[in-house]
Amino acid sequence: MSHDTIQIDSDALTATIAPLGAEMQSLRTSGGADLLWHGDPKWWSGRAPILFPIVGKAPGDRIAVGDHEAQMRQHGFARRSAFTLASQGPSDCRHVLQDSAETRALYPFAFEIAVTHALEGATLTVSVEISNRDAKPMPFGFGFHPAFAWPLPGAEGTPHEIRLDNGAEPALARLRDGLLPPERQPSPFRNGHLTLDPDQFEADAMIFPEGAGPGLSYGVPGGPELAFTFDNLPNLALWQPPGAPFLCIEPWHGMAAEHAASPQIAERPFSLTLPPRETARFGYSVTARI
């Protein structure tokens, strides 16, 4: 297994990806502007972790699959696992994680996760295939957790917005003790627009379980902006440690466990159960308009 960070390039962007967690470490324009958070642990040491086999917390940090129970930290183990470089080209690379004795002690399945990062012009696409290599159905949640610069390069001192492509006003959920309560709050969006303010994150992440749609734009209308599309990722979270110089734009298929819920992964909101020998696919693209 390679421990080297991989660099991929297009005419407009350069990205680096580490084998630990198959996590993107940087995303930079050809002009040298950094779009991705650089991981200063003063705020948050993550940059763009992959979340599997759970998104968010489990009750008491314990999960269950049938009669099997184990400790599992928030967002699962993939982000702390060493992936193997399976292929690399000038503008793309593919990393793979397969089950091991260590993972099966936590999560009793044979599986494979393949993560592909690819650049084309000003667009980065991250594609994930999760395969159930076991003889029994495999419940799981999956999500992306990338952190992008706030403010974006060239937009310092200018209010930033999130604009949902579908123009919706999705209901807001706020975690309580890291778990999902049943109640929903009024949407902070108006006709699909949300002007961002660090005060919005004093109560932790803003989570939109339903209705945020398959794409959004982040940045300054008419100025520097990142445009996103999501594939098979119905849930959205926005997160920032208040005042930090980044914003996490997190598309998920799966969420934190509900309050008073069992530890069963299959019972978590938006969890998937993948039949034996089948593969589920997820992805997002981001286009830089900087």
Name of the top-level CATH class: Mainly Beta
Task: Describe the global form.
Answer: globular
Radius of gyration: 18 Å
Broad structural category: mainly beta
Tell me the strand percentage band.
Answer: 35-45%
- By CATH, the architecture is named Distorted Sandwich
Number of helices: 1
Describe the fold and architecture.
The protein is mostly beta strands. The chain contains one helix and 22 strands. It has a nine-stranded antiparallel beta sheet, with no helix packed on it. Strands 4, 12, 13, 16, 19 and 20 form a six-stranded antiparallel beta sheet that branches. A three-stranded antiparallel beta sheet has the order 1-2-3, with no helix packed on it. Strand 7 (84-88) and strand 8 form a beta hairpin. The longest helix has 6 residues, at 101-106. The mean pLDDT is 97.
